[in-house]
Amino acid sequence: MPIYLPLIVLASTAWVGYVGPSGRLEQHLRRSFVAFFEWFGELGIFCGRLLRSAFAPPFEGRELIRQMDIVGSRSLPLVAIAGAATGVVMSLQMRDSLTRFGGKAMLPAVIVFSLLKETGPMITGLVLSGRVGAGIGAELGSMKVTEQIDAMEASAVDPHRFLVATRVLACIAMLPLLTLAADFCGIIMGWVANTLVEPISFRLFLNNGFKNVDFNDFLLPTFKTAVFGCIIGVIACFQGIRTKGGTEGVGRSATSSVVLSSLFIILADVVLVRIILTFFS
Q1: How many other C-beta atoms lie within 10 A of the C-beta of residue 26?
Q2: Of 11, 127, 185, 228, whose CB has the highest number of CB atoms within 10 Å?
Q3: CA dihedral of 87, 191, 98, 111, whole degrees rounded to 10
Q4: Whether the Cβ atoms of residue 184 and residue 72 lie closer than 8 Å to each other
Q5: To which H or E segment does residue 51 belong?
Q6: DSSP one-letter code for 106
C-alpha cells in the first residue's frame, strides 16, 4: 500500500488541476456566448434609436455638412493614393499573367472591370473603416468617458441625433463618391503603368477597357458602398457610445471599431455580390 500511495496522491493532484481549468474554460465560454448575443441585442436597440432620431425633426444640417467634409474631402487623398497604387499593381501583375496565356490585349478590360466591380469598392470601404472608423470610435469614446454625452442629454440635446445620425449619414453619402475617386485614380495609374512598359494612347486604353462595360457594372458596385458606409458609421458610433474604462477604453473602442467594421464589410460584400448576381445580371 505505501508503494501505491504516491501514485494515488499524484493522480488526485492531476485530476484537481485538470478539473479546475476546465471549469474556468466552461465559464469563460458561457460568458462569451452570452456577451455575443448581448452585443447584437444592444446593437439592435441602438439602431432603433438611430432610425427614430435620423428621420425626426429638427435636423442637424450644419453638423451633417461638417461631418461630410471630415469623412469625404479629408479622406480623398488617402483613397486616391490607395486607388492609384491598386491600379499600378494590377497593371504590373495582370500583364505578366495575361502574357502567359496570350491575352495581353485584354489588360485594359481586366483593370477596368476589376476596379469598377470589386477592387475599387472594397479598397475604399476598408481604407475608410481604418481612418473614419477609428476616428469616430475614439472621438465618441472620449466624449463618453469625459461625460460630455451625459451633459448633452442633461441639456435636452439628443446625442443620437447630433452625434450619431450625422456621422452615419455622412458615411453613407460619401462612400460612393470616394469610390468613384478610387476607380478614377486606379484606371489612370493603370494606364500610366501600362504605358511605361508598352506605350498605348489613353483613348485606346479607355476604348478597350470600357468596350463591354454595362451601366449596371458601374452603378450597382458603386452604390453598394453606401451599405459599407452605413456599416462603418453604425459600428464606430456604437462602439464609441458604449465606451467604458477611461483612456484604455477609448483605445479599445477605436480598435474594435476598425476590426468589426472591416469584418462586417467583408461579410456584407459577400451577400451583396450574391444579390447583385442573382437579381441584376
Answers
A1: 10
A2: 228
A3: 50
A4: no
A5: helix 5-54
A6: G
List, as own/partner pairs, every contact residues 260-267 make where C-beta atoms lie below 8 angstroms and the sequence separation is at least 24, other chains included.
Answer: 260/235, 261/129, 261/133, 261/231, 261/232, 261/235, 261/236, 262/126, 262/129, 262/130, 262/133, 264/231, 264/235, 265/122, 265/125, 265/126, 265/129, 265/228, 265/231, 265/232
Measuring CA to CA, which residue among 233, 242, 232 is closest to residue 262? 232
Domain extents in the chain: 58-279
Residue 211 in grid coordinates: 468596350
Is residue 119 a contact partner of residue 131, using CB atoms and an 8 Å limit? no
Which amino acid does the sequence have at 224?
Answer: K
pLDDT 10s digits, 151-188: 887 887 778 888 888 999 999 999 999 999 999 999 99
pTM listed for this prediction: 0.85
Cα separation, 99 vs 92, whole angstroms: 11
What pLDDT digit, counting tens, does each position of 9-49 carry?
Answer: 444 444 344 444 556 777 777 787 787 788 888 888 888 88
Q: What is the DSSP letter of 104?
A: G
Euclidean distance between CA atoms 233 and 215, whole angstroms: 28
Nearest to 194 by CA among 96, 64, 268: 96
Three cell numbers at 67? 461631418
**CA separation for the pair 104, 111 (Å, rounded):** 12
Q: What phi and psi, each to the nearest 5 degrees, are found at residue 3?
A: -70, -40
* DSSP H or E run through 73: none
Q: CA angle 106-110-116, nearest 5°?
A: 145
As given in the structure block, the three cell numbers for residue 21 are 481549468
Number of C-alpha atoms within 13 angstroms, CB side, residue 203?
A: 0
| Residue 62 amino acid letter | R
At residue 109, the 3 state secondary structure works out as helix
Residues 20, 17: Cα–Cα separation, whole Å: 5
